[in-house]
Each structure stands twice: as C-alpha cells, then as structure tokens.
Amino acid sequence: MLFETIKTSGLSHLSYLLGSDGQAAVIDPRRDCDIYVEKARAAGLRITHIFETHRNEDLVSGAPMLAALTGASVYHGPNPEQPVVYAQTAREADSFAIGQLEIKVLETPGHTFDHLAYAIYDSAYPERAVGVFTGDALFVGDVGRTDFYPDQREKVAGLLYDSLQKILALGDQAIIYPAHGAGSVCGSGMADREFSSVGHERLNNPRLQIQSREQFIEDKISENHYQPPYFRLMERLNMQGGEPAPIIMRPPNLTLEQLHNCDVDHLIDIREPLSYASAHLPGSMSLPVGMIPSFAGWFISEGERVALVAEDEQQLATAMEHLVRIALDNIVGGYVGVVSAAKQGESVEQIAMVTTDVVKYRLQRHKDNVDSGDDTWTLLDVRDADERAEAAIEGSEHIYVGQLNERWRELDKNRHYTLMCASGERATIAAGWLASQGFEHLDIYLGGMSAWQAQAKK
Fold first, then answer.
1. From-to residues of CATH 3.40.250.10 in the chain
2. Which of 296, 288, 305 is nearest to 323 (CA)?
3. What is the structure's pLDDT at 341?
C-alpha cells in the first residue's frame, strides 16, 4: 500500500497519492504532474482515479493533464459555476475502490459550492473512516474562507458550518488531509503541522469551538481576505482545463544585451529585498523568489511577458516553478549578475533603507508640516488590514501591498513615500513596484512595525 503527500512549496499546496493492489488515486494534483506518475510507477501502481476537492482559486489544477498522461478518470463535485469540462460529477455517498481502499464522497459546500471531501476506508476495517481529504473545508488549525460569493456571504458561511459537522461525524479517529498548509492564501490561522485528526481539531481548532451556527456565520463574514486578480484566471482554467506545464522548467539565459533588447511587460528582480534595495537594474520591480506565489498574481496579468533578474541559476528555476503553477509563465528569460553588470559600468539604481529614529523624526516633521500646509512626506503602511487593526503607527496611511497594483495611481509621484510593513520585505515589493511605475522619492523602513514595537519596549 502506498500513501504519500506531495507538497508544493510557496503555495503551501498539499496533494496526495495513494494506492493499493496495482491501482492508485491522486487527490488535487498540481499542474506539473509528472511527479505523480513517476512515484506511482516506482511503486508498481497505475493511476486510475483523480479526485478534485473543489475548483481551486490559487493554482492551476493538474487533473486534466494527469488524466491525459494516465487515462485516469477525473471526478469533481456538483454545482460548479460552469461545467468542469474534463471531469465527471461525483456526488454524496458515491464510492470508489482503490484496491484494498475505499473512497466515499461527502458533499461539503461552503468554501465553494462544488466542494467535496473524500473519506478513506480500509476494507479490512470498514466500519469507521481511516482518514478524510478535507480540501479547503477544514485545515489544521483553521477552516476554509467563505468570501468568494460576496452577495451570498451568510449562505456560504452556513453551508461551511454544516459541512464541518459532516466531517466531524466521521469520528475522532479519522486523520485529516487538507489541501493546504501554513502559508497558504486560503487561510490565515493554519498550524505549521500538516497532519492532524478530527478529534484533535474538534478539541483545538478555534473555529470548531464555536457551537452556534449563527455565531459561526457572524465570525466568518467578519473576516478580512484579499483576492488577487489571478484568482479569476485560476477559476477559469480549472473549469475549462489548463495547458500542460512546459517541458523545460527553467527560463532561457539572457545576456545583458539581450535583456536590454527584449520586449517585456515586467522586469522582475527575484533576489532578496536587501540585494534589490542595494542595487537593481532601472525599471525593475522587486519580487523575491519566495514571495512569488503570494504576490505575483497581484502585479502580473495573463499573457504578460516577463524577464527575471536573479542571484543565481537556482533562483531562476525556482521562480519559474512558482510562475508555472499559477499560469503566469510567459517568461522570456532570466539574467544573473547585477553586481557584475555594475562592475562593467551598467547603470544601477538604489532605494534607501531608513531606521526607526529617522521615521520618528519624519513623523514629527510631518505633523508640524501638516499644520503649516507644507507637508510632502507620507509613511505608507502596506501590511494587511488585520495587521494594521492590531497595531498601527499614528500618522501613517494604509494601502495593502497587493492593491498598489491599481491604487498606485492615487499617489503623487512628486511626494516622498517611506514604505513599511512588519519587517521590510513587503515594503520592498511595494517600493519596487512604485519605482517601476516612475516614482523617484522612495525609501523603506527597515524592520517596520517589528522594529517600531521593539524600540517602544526599551
């Protein structure tokens, strides 16, 4: 018998391969899906079933590609917004045999209307479920978000409450296998652990401590979530079926001359924030490689051409993996060597970093200048709304970093902006984006709110 979790870093996506007696099934495969075939074949198994828990919003489903590779049947839940053209419909109490294992379908709407969970049974012990693939309904330490139907907020929150009761009814012994782990945009309170049980979650998951359906609904509709524009692209592709991932998951190498001459919509520096701030090519924006899954979908649109600037070849390969998984992979090529370019006389730009003392001094001047009508500086907080609600610096203004994709037009290019977040990483993304849009009077609060609060304790 085979059971393996395949984790997709960055997106914190969890998919699963299980098999018995020559057959195998995959739950929620990703777009670059060769890994499932390789692992199944290495175990002497043939993939015969592919199960989707829901129409994913944050990544491209690999189900149609994996079906083409293996001939397996794909199953998806009822009530999608549009027909899922590559899948058959699975419904409540449908049952599928995978060798010694049996998978039973639970309809669990709430996160999306088409959401399913899949309970696993061992035919040797058929009375109680061994585990359950919970998709985005139940996570370790959290439950699914319910903000995708804003005109039906109360309805979908209530549906999720009911679906969770159905999962809990499987029994405390059942192990839960969610579709995401900590760091995913699909939830904010997930634990670092990627394993749990129904019993553990019943006792410890804060959302499952809410006994009243009405209170659960009230709490869910009060949550604050952001929806990057690329979510709409994922939703469309995961109904129509996306294209296979590129065979070569590494961008072509560009010389400095080729980089200058290529026609792109975005020049993206994927190095670490301090490296970008110290020296970057003119016109480039900052998007550190580890933050691509969270923020690329705010600033890159479908089909836009991208060139990457990296520290080394591995960064380029990792960045392409991240972009392929969200179908923003029109990558012209990658360049390595900002420092060597500077040594050759290439023009580079910098964005200054400032400390807490400088920010305090500017805030006082800002207050004085507002009173005198001679104010030209703004401390711009780019954290999310929940972070700002917990603690904010008096005198700062707020625009979430992702929303600068459009709201930069509200800002004055003649004004001086100091960008801040919790530490400085998101602030560097914000500053880099504004710099790429022609803003010249920018700096970054190094340490951000963390540094501000640490100094306040001294």
1. 256-343, 352-456
2. 296
3. 84
